[in-house]
Structures are given as C-alpha cells and as structure tokens.
C-alpha cells in the first residue's frame, strides 16, 4: 500500500507525444492520459509491454482527445485494462472517433507494409500486425464515463478529480486531482495541453489559484508565436499566389480543432472577399466526424463563434466546402483541374490521406504545402519543414519542389508567454512544477525560465522516473 502518492512518468517525459502519467495512492493506480507515441524513434514504446499490468490500473483520466493523449487506450484494454475512462462529454465523443480512425490506420498500414515487403522479397519471420484493431476499440468504448466541467467526481478511495476548460480543443481539460485525506490532502494539477487566449471557436484556458504539484506541458516553452492577427493574411497570400501558379494548397492538419479552425479562417477570408471561391476539401473521415461533434456542442463555443452561427454564417457550411469520407472520393481530388484547397490528416504527416496528397504535390513547384501545427522530431512533417530535399513516402522517394510554408500562429498550444500567463493564477509557490510534453532542450529551457521568473522549484522528469508527492 502506498500511503504517500507516487507519480511515474510513462510518456511525454523529455519528448512531446505519448502522454501517460501513473498516479499510485494506497491500493489504487490511476493513469492520467493514455496516448500514443508518434516520434519515429520512440514508436517502439507503443509495442513494449506496459510497465505495470494494465489489469491492475483502476481508472484512466483523459485530459483531451488528441491521439497522443488517448490513442493508446485500445491497446491498454487489449492487454487487460477494464476500468472506467473519465473525460468530458466532448472528449469522450471525439476520442471514440480518434481511436476508431487510429485502428483503421493501424490495420491499413500493416496490410500495406506486408504487401510491400512481400513484393520486395524481404518478408520477416514474424507477421506484420496492427497495434490494435477495430474489435479492440469496440471493447474500449463502453468504458467511457463523462464528467462536466468543474463538477468533482470520486475516482478511487482518497482521489477526487475535476475537469476545467483548457481552451485547447473542444472538450479539453486541465485535470485537478485532490489526493489523500486526514489533513494530508494534496492538490495535483495536470495541465494537459494548454490552449491560447482570444482564439477562434473556444473559450480561454482556466487559471488556478493554488496547487501543491503541477504537471505542465512545454511544447513551445522556448519561443513566442507569431502575431495571430497576421496569420489569416498570410494564409490568404499563399492561397492567392498558389492559385496564380496553378497548383494546389495542401494543408496537413490535425482532424480535431485545427481543421475546424482553418475552416473558421477560410470562412472569414471568403466573407471579406480576400480569397477566390475555390473548392475546399476536408479529406479526412475523422475531421468530418469531429466537425459534426463541434456542431453538436455549440454550448462550448466562445461568444464570437456563437454570433456567427446565429447569423447563419457557420464556418462548417461555407461556400465550396466538399467532404470526402470515402477513399474513392479522396482519389477524385487528383483529377480536378485548377487550384483546390486540400485539408487532410494527419497533422504531422505520420499516416492517413495526407501522404497521398504529398506524393502528388510535393514534386510540383506550382503547389504549396502549409504546416499549421507542431511537427515532432522524427516525423515526416518535421523532415519537410526542416528543409529536406527528398523524402520517403509510402515506400517511394519524392523530391520536395513545392512551396513549403509554416504558420506558427495557428498553433493551439500556448507559447512561452502564454504558459507563464497560465501559471500566473497560482498565488502561492507550489512544492514543485514538473515540466513535461516538450523536447529535452525546450523542457529544460522552460523549467529554468520558470525558476528564474517565479523562484519556484521545477523538474524535468525522465521516462520511467517515479517521484513521491510528499
């Protein structure tokens, strides 16, 4: 029995994806976030045996429904987890879409790789199998239990959780845990991914006044974003120049939040007559499904978005928008003459239909590829934005001749100043701030910055490290 809470960092520790934190107290084990690793050199951890038996985990708490925070859940269930999975209603609905899509990609990629290896004569001694299947997803879905914002719920004996709007994606949360009893209660806040202030569609992140321990992300802890006000204009300039050149505008996009925010800005640009009325494709079954969930949860929108909907100017119904749910619909995009705007997943180009659009457009100087989100080290997206002249996609090598652009201002992650703003609500120094969810140099830089600015104790945990919350 652990009379003092212990925390083990099983992911997002000196890296950006695979968010997993194990809290142990008395006889309970609670996993906060259950994400997939996406960095190429860390993906093997998705296949490794989980450090503790999944059957011995009492509950999972999800901060939000991005794949690097929820995408490992079916594998955990496959390996024996059967407890409840807590999150907000929007998180539960979006997570269901995300893990179904991920299972489909796992199955598809395994089949494609098997065929390619067989064709190339390098079949190994073991069959290529997906990490998990649709059947594993179906076993996970009944485990979801939802909780509204700001309403505490009992997770286990001596552990209470509440969810608070993080302003990152629809339904995203900062999770506040109250752990312990008999005058020895500790408040632990898990930031999840921290959103930004004055962003489209969503409300601002929640601030907290006190905490004993804080686990906070540091994805952009070493930099400031470009002025967000400039981003729609830059987007318009790229679209107009690409149309004049006769190419396509390809936007690798996360299906959750980013795709919807791009539609928001395209809608405003069209209403202001700043871009031509081109065909706009949402070429992602997941993004299509998530957009429907957005429409269902209008109560979570900020006042500006609510006014657009009231005026019948919803960005989800803009002129020229085409949804391509099927693979055949997607393939037809390649036969369209003239310029089209193609929004496809995945955002880091690690899988999905975006790879096919990159194959068709990267070699074309007339086309543009616009990156509007974070590109983790080792991903195809990171290779491209770092200036690779040639990249390997779907077993072939392709020259990068298209115009490559990166718009930082679209990020849904807080930058350094916004991370500090999020901490500004804390009135009394916490016992320790754990800096996670950042590349090693970035996390260490931000930890030093927090210590210098606030004189608070910070720590950048290593993978597998366990700390006692004394």
Q: Which term fits the overall shape?
A: globular
Strand content: 15-25%
Q: Residue-averaged pLDDT, rounded?
A: 93
**Total beta strands:** 22
Number of helices: 14
What's the story with the biggest beta sheet? 7 strands, mixed
Number of domains: 2
Quaternary organisation: single chain
Class from helix and strand fractions: alpha/beta
CATH superfamily of the largest domain: Ribonuclease Z/Hydroxyacylglutathione hydrolase-like
End-to-end separation in angstroms reads 15 Å
Helix content bin: 25-40%
- Spatial strand sequence of the major β-sheet: 6-5-4-3-2-1-22
| Alpha carbon gyration radius | 22 Å
Topology:
Layout: E1 2-9, E2 21-26, E3 28-32, H1 44-47, E4 59-61, H2 67-70, H3 73-78, E5 85-87, H4 89-120, H5 134-140, E6 144-146, E7 153-156, E8 159-165, E9 173-179, E10 186-190, E11 213-217, H6 231-245, E12 249-252, H7 258-271, E13 279-283, H8 285-296, H9 303-310, E14 321-323, H10 327-332, E15 340-344, H11 354-361, E16 368-371, H12 380-385, E17 390-393, E18 396-399, E19 403-406, H13 416-423, E20 432-436, H14 440-454, E21 458-459, E22 466-468
Parallel strand pairs: 3-4, 4-5, 5-6, 10-11, 11-20, 12-15, 12-16, 13-14, 13-15, 16-19, 20-21
Antiparallel strand pairs: 1-2, 1-22, 2-3, 7-8, 8-9, 9-10, 17-18
Helix pairs in contact: 4-5, 4-8
């Amino acid at each position: 029995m652990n009379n003092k809470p212990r925390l083990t960092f099983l992911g997002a520790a000196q890296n950006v994806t695979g968010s997993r934190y194990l809290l142990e107290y008395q006889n309970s084990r609670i996993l906060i976030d259950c994400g997939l690793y996406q960095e190429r050199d860390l993906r093997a951890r998705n296949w490794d045996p989980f450090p503790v038996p999944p059957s011995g985990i009492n509950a999972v708490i999800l901060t939000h429904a991005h794949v690097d925070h929820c995408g490992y859940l079916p594998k955990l269930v496959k390996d024996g987890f059967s407890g409840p999975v807590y999150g907000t209603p929007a998180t539960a609905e979006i997570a269901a879409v995300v893990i179904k899509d991920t299972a489909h990609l796992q199955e598809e990629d395994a089949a494609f790789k098997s065929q390619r290896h067989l064709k190339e004569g390098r079949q190994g001694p073991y069959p290529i199998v997906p990490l998990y299947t649709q059947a594993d997803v179906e076993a996970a879905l009944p485990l979801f239990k939802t909780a509204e914002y700001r309403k505490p719920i009992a997770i286990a004996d001596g552990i209470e959780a509440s969810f608070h709007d993080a302003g990152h994606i629809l339904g995203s949360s900062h999770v506040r845990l109250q752990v312990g009893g008999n005058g020895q209660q500790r408040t632990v806040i898990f930031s999840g991914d921290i959103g930004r202030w004055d962003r489209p569609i969503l409300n601002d992140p929640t601030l907290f006044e006190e905490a004993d321990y804080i686990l906070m992300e540091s994805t952009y802890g070493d930099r400031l974003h470009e002025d967000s006000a400039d981003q729609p204009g830059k987007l318009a300039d790229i679209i107009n120049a690409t149309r004049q050149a006769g190419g396509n505008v390809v936007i690798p996009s996360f299906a959750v939040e980013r795709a919807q925010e791009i539609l928001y800005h395209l809608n405003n640009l069209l209403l202001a007559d700043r871009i031509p009325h081109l065909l706009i494709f949402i070429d992602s079954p997941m993004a299509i499904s998530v957009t429907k969930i957005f429409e269902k949860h209008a109560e979570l929108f900020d006042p500006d978005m609510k006014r657009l909907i009231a005026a019948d100017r919803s960005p989800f119904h803009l002129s020229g928008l085409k949804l391509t749910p099927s693979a055949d619909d997607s393939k037809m995009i390649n036969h369209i003459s003239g310029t089209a705007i193609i929004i496809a997943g995945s955002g880091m180009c690690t899988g999905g239909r975006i790879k096919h659009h990159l194959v068709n457009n990267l070699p074309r100087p007339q086309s543009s590829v616009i990156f509007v989100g974070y590109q983790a080290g080792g991903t195809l997206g990171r290779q491209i934005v770092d200036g690779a002249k040639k990249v390997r996609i779907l077993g072939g090598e392709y020259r990068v001749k298209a115009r490559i652009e990166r718009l930082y201002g679209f990020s849904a992650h807080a930058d350094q100043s916004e991370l500090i703003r999020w901490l500004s609500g804390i009135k009394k120094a916490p016992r320790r701030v754990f800096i996670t969810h950042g590349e090693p140099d970035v996390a260490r830089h931000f930890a030093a910055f927090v210590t210098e600015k606030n004189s608070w104790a910070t720590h950048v945990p290593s993978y597998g490290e366990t700390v006692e919350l004394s």
